[in-house]
Amino acid sequence: MPEIKPRTIVLRCPVCFARENDVTLFREGEEYYCIKCSFTGTDRDVRAMYTDLRKKYHWILKRVPLEEQRTL
């Protein structure tokens, strides 16, 4: 029977992701480190920045008609 490997969560650098450069993965350790932009942060920092990024893409799956856009 094959061995079941635990799922690993792939996190991307929130600074690079906010700049829409979604290629940079973290080097894991005590803190996360981005090779491209030199961002260093803890897991809590990264999760907080991810929460802020969700606000940017809040309506990405919702269709907003032109009339509704004019009232916004």
Brief synopsis:
With about 70 residues, this protein is an alpha+beta fold. The protein has 3 helices and 3 strands; from the N terminus they run αβββαα.
Domain tally: 1
Number of helices: 3
Strand order of the largest sheet: 1-2-3
Gyration radius (Cα, Å) is: 17 Å
Oligomer: single chain
What is the H-and-E element order? HEEEHH
Return the average pLDDT rounded to an integer: 81
Q: Calculate the terminal CA-CA distance, rounded to whole Å.
A: 57 Å
Helix proportion of residues, in percent?
25-40%
Structural class: alpha+beta
Low-pLDDT segments: none
Coarse morphology: extended
Tell me about this structure.
- The N and C termini lie far apart (57 Å).
- The chain is of the alpha+beta class.
- The mean pLDDT is 81.
- It has a 3-stranded antiparallel sheet with strand order 1-2-3.
- A hairpin with a 5-residue loop joins strand 2 and strand 3.
- 35% of the residues lie in helices and 10% in strands.
- The protein has one domain.
- It contains 3 helices and 3 strands; from the N terminus they run αβββαα.
What is the strand and helix layout of this fold?
Blueprint: H1 14-18, E1 26-27, E2 32-34, E3 40-41, H2 43-56, H3 66-71
Antiparallel strand pairs: 1-2, 2-3
Core attributes:
72 residues, alpha+beta, three-stranded antiparallel sheet, 3 helices, 35% helix, extended
